[in-house]
Design brief:
This protein is about 0% helix and about 55% strand. The chain is built from no helices and 11 strands. The strands form 2 sheets. Strands 2, 4, 5, 6, 9, 10 and 11 form a 7-stranded mixed β-sheet that branches. A 4-stranded antiparallel β-sheet has the order 1-3-8-7, with no helix packed on it. It is globular and about 40 Å long. The protein starts with a strand and ends with a strand.
Length: about 120
């Protein structure tokens, strides 16, 4: 099992920045692909970003240039640095781990961007 706990979500103004963090406990974090998803009000959960075990990153088009994903294998954490936030970024952000023994989700952290 891997447990994931997200933190860092809060109310922020349009144009502001925020850093989300996901702390993982469990086996083989460094070998896992870590992903961030979000669920906007009334919408399906959607992919935002991933970072592979080798550090390769991928971000969905609408956040490219504004969001950065990173990981610290020594601390078993993955971060999502968000800048130039827009009201449309308002969502619950979830951390996901793709491990050799399954896929695991955190409970999410709420990000609200006021206009």
């Amino acid at each position: 099992q891997m447990q994931l706990v997200e933190s860092g979500g809060r109310l922020v103004q349009t144009g502001g920045s925020l850093r989300l963090s996901c702390a993982a406990s469990g086996r083989a974090f460094s070998a896992s692909t870590m992903r961030w998803f979000r669920q906007r009000p009334g919408k399906q959960r959607e992919f935002v970003a991933l970072i592979a075990s080798d550090g390769t990153t991928e971000l969905v088009g609408e956040v490219q240039g504004r969001f950065t994903i990173s990981r610290d294998n020594a601390k078993n954490t993955v971060g999502l640095q968000m800048s130039r936030l827009k009201p449309d970024d308002t969502a619950v952000y979830f951390c996901n781990a793709l491990t050799t023994y399954g896929s695991f989700w955190g409970q999410g952290t709420q990000v609200t961007v006021s206009s």
